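Much of our argument rests on the idea that a fold can be written as discrete symbols. In the encoding step, the backbone of a single protein was reduced to a row of integers, each denoting a local shape. This step matters because it turns folding into a mapping between discrete strings. For completeness, the protein is quoted in full, as a sequence line and a line of structure tokens:
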Amino acid sequence: MTDFVVSEGLADPADQRPAAMGDRRRPVWVVPDEVPAIVPRSARFTEARWVAKYRWAALGGDFAAALIGVSGALVTRFGGQISLGYFVLGAVLPIAWLACVALERGYETRYFGTGPEEFRSILRATVALTAVVAVASYATKSNVARGFVVLAVPMTCVAAMLARWLLHRSIANRRFVGRCMRRVLVVGHNGQVTTLRRHLEERPADGYVVVATCLPRGGAAEEPGPGSELLGRTEVDILAAVDLYAVDVVAVAADPELSGHSLRRLSWALEQRGVDLIVSPGIVEVAGPRISIRPVAGLSLLHLERPSVSGGPHLLKSIFDRTVGGGMLLLSAPLLLVIALLVRLTSRGPVLFRQTRVGRSGVEFSMLKFRTMSVDAEARKAELHALDEGNGVLFKLRDDPRVTRVGKHLRRFSLDELPQLVNVLRGEMSLVGPRPPLAAEVAMYAIDDARRMLVKPGLTGLWQVSGRSDLTWEESMRLDLRYADNWSIALDLLILWKTARAVLGRDGAY
């Protein structure tokens, strides 16, 4: 039977340890050099407390949103002449709204604080409530004013979305300081455990904190160091670690030896303790919409959809890019004219800077930007090479002496990139996509890196909203590949929304 090494995460384990070393059916603990502090008995109930508060806050926010929507619709549609029937309808709609949100899983614990799924439940509840009102009106042959429904339901949806967003931001802020977290025990082999733990720790807003990791002896040091224990293979041993560390979630990281009936029995035992079980399939950088569970031959099989790299979705993206890009170009025309005059009058040289970049499928194009540097910038680059603050591939300087006075302000708000809207209209770029690379960068790509060329480069992208110039080369490439594999119109809209906040902030802008 394979032994496991259980290492501490961010929390201290209790000091309870079975003494028997020879019975492999029981946990086998090695007392560390320093005895850690005991986990409080109330730790297991910490999650229950904040979950209950979150649920009540969500219910209160949704109810208040429904009251706002109904009241606003009644006053707007009828003014001071509201009949008794509409007073009754206004009293019933908030209750119907809460029922629709509940049926659409808007109050399920697993979705609390996750963001997208909560918002989807609100949108689905909006459609459901509209259908309920329509069916009820037809069944009772009552003449409900369409203007009232058209106002009440959308206003309720918008108010509920705003309330959930505020609630989500509140819990995210608490999670960044270590509160409202789910305590996780990660079980698996060394490589998978390390990857899963890194991903969980990179996103504290998701609410998972790894308090211990369970590794096979062969995947860790032969002798445990201070704060480490040896644990047996059976689910009894894992349950002992669950109790010891007051765990809320057990995460199995693609462990082929812990599967099938053993994993099923473990889920039953965890269910009795009120502990969640999550299983990582080992597939990284793949978004949820591409993953689905399908029952086949009595088995639940994980199905991975192919990414959309051609056909209808890309045609829709092209239409969206050119329509929105053209509108943005028209609206920003006065600003473009002012910037062009400032560049022309404050420094010697052309207004626009043209540079050859590589687009989709390796096709080169001339990318446009407002000139923010002196005309001899390329000639002076060699003398500044020793001061490079970039990511090892791209040359960057926070206080680059080649940047003009106007150029500093243009870069600060990314206004120098506005002429790329012309590239969008030409079909060479997209509004959202990977960063447009230089030919020299493409020559350094590994085989896997070339996948970023499946989509058009973008005016903005995940790299823009995730750190900009502060990203390492590996991080920038990982974000580009994630976008290429998982892009959708919804993701594009989300990135465009976040771009404004990233541009207004100073992080990574130089």
In short: Residues 46-78 form the longest helix (33 residues).
